[in-house]
Amino acid sequence: MRLPHPLTGELFESPVPPGTGWPEDPAVRRTPVARSTADVVELAQTDELAELDARVSVCRACPRLVEWREEVALSKRKSFADQPYWGRPIAGWGDPEPRVLIAGLAPAANGGNRTGRVFTGDRSGDWLFASLHRVGLATQPTSEHAGDGLRLLGARMMAAVRCAPPANKPTPEERDTCSPWFRRELELVLPSTRAIVCLGKFGFDALLNALQSVGGAVPKPRPKFGHAVEYPIPGPYGEVVVLGCFHPSQQNTFTGKLTEPMLDTVMTRAKELAGL
Ligand code: SF4
Q1: Ligand 1 lined by 177 (C-beta under 6 Å)
Q2: What is the per-residue pLDDT across 168-216, written as a single tens digit (0 to 9) for each?
Q3: Domain extent at residue 196
């Protein structure tokens, strides 16, 4: 059944076939599809960030995650039953030559997996984009739908795992299968990047692994995750500062473990370090 996109009114199937007009869809119908771990390794070897985004967005390499993301896209949360669901992996998004990078864990089943844009349409994203707007890294305080005109200012977001996992928990094998996408994206944006904010421990650890594999001198013993920690790490294009930040999950924001001032402090610091 085709349903209207909440912004454009255009009709889409769920999941959304690539290249059919969904706002900000990076893929075209002929974008090559990764169907195995080996395919991911091979297809991640592109020099074009836009092509990498396109390839990520049609990937089918993890059977459990493909089944889950498409199942959620068809069954839908009741409050979104009148909307089409993206139901595909979520590519990195934002400035192609960022100075600040924001690294998370994975998209949410009824957030990014519904809207097709990272952190868009869920409560964590509401917190994150409001903070980015307050500190001057986003043009709007809200991010509800792809195609709403929102832009990040000198910043880019990406997730360590690109498909929504059941219970927000990818398996170690799924994390490893997805890692070539993450690593290659990091490699392509690293020349301009000066500060990297890692949301949560999973994103922090995945980022350090990726940074090391692209030539970053990650110290031993490994830096420990914590809120507002900072680690300068020499890399192939100069020093980048990796910052820890509690994830703006509902669990953290409801309990007061993460407050708006705490989030703003880290984002402001990243902006300063990046010279923005
Ligand atoms: S998690 Fe990553 S590797 Fe696995 S299907 Fe999604 S995009 Fe592909």
Answers
A1: yes
A2: 899 999 999 999 999 999 999 999 999 999 999 999 999 999 999 999 9
A3: 3-273
CATH number for 146? 3.40.470.10
Interval between CA 33 and ligand 1 midpoint (Å): 11
Is the pTM value of this prediction over 0.70?
Answer: yes
Q: Give the bridge partners for 156, in sequence order.
A: 94, 101
Which residues does residue 103 pair with via DSSP β-bridges, in sequence order? 158, 198
- Distance from Cα 15 to the centre of ligand 1, integer Å: 15
Q: How far apart are CA 231 and CA 251, in angstroms?
A: 26
Give the CA distances from residue 210 to residues 128, 215, 264, in Å, rounded to whole numbers and listed in that order.
Answer: 23, 9, 26
Average pLDDT over residues 19-33: 98
φ/ψ of residue 243, rounded to 5: -115, 140
183 CA distance to ligand 1 middle (Å):
13
pLDDT at 108: 96
Total tally of structural domains belonging to the chain: 1
Ligand 1 within 6 A of 57 CB?
no
Confidence of residue 45 (pLDDT cuts 50, 70, 90): very high
Using a 6 Å cutoff on CB, does residue 163 contact ligand 1? yes
What local confidence, expressed as pLDDT, does residue 265 receive? 98
Residue 61 near ligand 1, beta carbon < 6 Å: yes
- Counting from 1 in the atom list of ligand 1, the atom nearest the Cα of 37 is 3
